[in-house]
Amino acid sequence: MFNVTENDKMNSPDFEIKDTGPISKEFLKNNITNFRMASLFIKELPYKRNKNKDDLLSIFSDGCGTCSTKHALLKKLADENGFKNIQLILGIFKMNTRNTPSVKQTLGKYKLEYIPEAHNYLRYKNEIIDCTKRNWKASDFENDILVEIEILPEQITVYKVAYHKEFLRGWLKKNNGVPYNIDELWEIREQCIKELSN
């Protein structure tokens, strides 16, 4: 079903998917039998918000996902199969026109060099695994990471938003030349996310 190239194999964890839980069952139902195939399948799905972010299986019915739902699903898959070495990471990085070209128009309109953006990805043996979009690579943003913490799959909703907003409040205090309050900055960030989905 998927051709896993040598490039995809580099630093990529792998294990056989066993019938050990609901997420494993769903991958097996789609003839996806190992973690590398699962990662590639997830990476190929369009970047778009899910109807129900709390139900990770909605990725299959929606046929899409975000950095949050895609990586939380893969982390849960690893957990179901007893593969504990993969971490789910919440990182804040400088989202700018170099690492995220599709936000150029919005950042230009609001005269911002970058916005600190919360991003989910996996870490394995200290290497980043990013399955957000087909053409995204860790090298695009890893030098722009400001902070990162390990989280649980259940923390991709309320906790992630609260952590991100708290970070933005601190960033606005340190960068008092930015002429926006937290609500205005969040709205600009939402416009950037819409551009990412196009």
Short description:
This protein is an alpha+beta fold and 198 residues long. It has helices at residues 6-9, 22-29, 35-44, 58-62, 67-80, 104-109, 158-174, 182-197; strands at residues 87-95, 115-124, 127-129, 145-151.
Tell me about this structure:
- The chain is α+β, with helices and mostly antiparallel strands.
- It has 2 domains: about 5-80, no CATH class; about 90-195, no CATH class.
- It has helices at about 5-10, 20-30, 35-45, 60, 65-80, 105-110, 160-175, 180-195, and strands at about 85-95, 115-125, 125-130, 145-150.
- It has a 4-stranded antiparallel β-sheet with strand order 3-2-1-4.
- A hairpin with a 2-residue loop joins strand 2 (about 115-125) and strand 3.
- The longest helix is centred in the C-terminal third of the chain and has 17 residues, at about 160-175.
- Residues about 1-10 have low confidence and may be disordered.
SSE topology sketch:
Layout: H1 6-9, H2 22-29, H3 35-44, H4 58-62, H5 67-80, E1 87-95, H6 104-109, E2 115-124, E3 127-129, E4 145-151, H7 158-174, H8 182-197
Antiparallel strand pairs: 1-2, 1-4, 2-3
